[in-house]
């Protein structure tokens, strides 16, 4: 009996590792009363620190526009006009 031709082996596909997206670190809320108060104060003052930093950068650069007032204040001014 005559044998058939040899079968060509299929090319192996490139192996890629399936790496899942890393989870964000968990934020653990403070439990002690003093730590809770400290966390609240830090949150309040970080907003003021950010605003002061933005003003400083804008004054040094010179051409950045600063938003005057909070969003609520700006909306009230628009309603009055």
TrEMBL record:
InterPro entries: UPF0390
Positions with biased composition (Basic residues): 19-30
Annotated segments matching region Disordered: 1-34
Protein name as it appears in the record: ARAD1C44924p
Organism: Blastobotrys adeninivorans
């Amino acid at each position: 009996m005559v044998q058939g031709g040899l079968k060509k082996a299929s090319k192996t596909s490139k192996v890629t590792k399936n790496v899942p997206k890393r989870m964000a670190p968990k934020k653990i809320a403070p439990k002690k009363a003093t730590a809770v108060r400290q966390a609240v104060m830090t949150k309040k003052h970080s907003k003021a620190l950010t605003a002061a930093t933005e003003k400083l950068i804008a004054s040094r650069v010179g051409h950045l526009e600063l938003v005057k007032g909070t969003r609520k204040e700006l909306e009230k001014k628009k309603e009055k006009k």
